[in-house]
Amino acid sequence: MLKGGCRLNGKKRCLLPLLLAGVLFSCTVTFSAAKKIPTILVCPKTLDNSFWGNVRAGAMTAGKEYGASVIWKGPTVETDIAGQLAIMEDFVNKRVDAIALAATDVKALYAPVKKALNAKIPVVSFDSGLDPDPTLCLIATDNYKGAFEAGEALARLIGQKGKIACIPLISGASTSILREKGFNAAIARYPGIRLVAVQYSESDVAKGMAVAENILTANPDLDGIFAANEPGAMGAAQAVKARGLSGKVKLVAFDASPMEIEMLQNGTIQALIVQNPYNMGYLAVKTCIEALNGKKVPKRIDTGVAVVTMDNFYEPKIQQLLYPAGNSGK
């Protein structure tokens, strides 16, 4: 008999503990390799325009960095509230691991969000929240502050007096509501400024152009326009340019699409209120991952905003904000 109690003619008895250890090790390796990859639905207001394209780029980058499968799915237009409701219902029923949502309506999306949370699916808001907002975190621009700065910029451009118009997004969307409030609060500080028209673009370039045409026709002595998002801005810019009013009717607009930047450079737009959509998308996915890992997430993350004019256009930090992919505007 050998030390340890194994007989020379009982090799199987000696090998049994080793075989069991090998099986256990193999199971451990297999389990580790089969670790579940979390699936995160990122549901924007629409798949259209460059703003949402930059949000998507940030979300996909975070998905790769944190080992998550990101599903990018939203309605074709921002006004399709029913379409976004259907998407939410579908993916809650499919039991995705987490959801990041930019709500098309502050009230209508409340029910599917509550359903997800009740099913233990973490939900964060980005860009636009709910009222009331039960989501774990809102990752967004401070829209009130950004629009307040837009009002201040427009007031400076028109010498703190004159007639102006506002072209918001969509009635009922939290982003639009906050931007209207912020803009109105700013211009209320200037008794010489009169707001003569408020018409919604419905986040559509053609509609934005049509309402800008109507405003300009009704107010031939108009001094300035605030367009609260990219489609409204492009529509208003086209209307102003077509009438030969570039530079005469001052235009301040949210966002920084390539066309908006071009309009800023050629003088049709005088100031852009620039958000950080790439960072918004990145942080939306990152926050979902943190929630899934049991970490406490902040209730609010401000992704920042900057007022861009040709006076600060070439500053390095502004160039980085305008061209997150590194394509300089110089």
From TrEMBL:
Species of provenance: Hydrogenispora ethanolica
Main location: other
Family affiliation: Belongs to the bacterial solute-binding protein 2 family.
UniProt GO molecular function: carbohydrate binding
PROSITE patterns: PROKAR_LIPOPROTEIN
Pfam families from the UniProt entry: Peripla_BP_4
Protein's UniProt keywords contain ATP-binding: no
UniProt subcellular location: Cell envelope
Chain ranges of the Periplasmic binding protein domain: 40-296
InterPro entries per UniProt: Peripla_BP_I (IPR028082), SBP_2_dom (IPR025997)
Protein's recorded name: Monosaccharide ABC transporter substrate-binding protein (CUT2 family)
Keywords recorded for this protein, A-Z: Signal
Domain of life: Bacteria
Signal peptide, first to last residue: 1-32
One Gene Ontology cellular component: cell envelope
Keyword Signal part of the UniProt annotation: yes
CDD domains named in the record: PBP1_ABC_sugar_binding-like
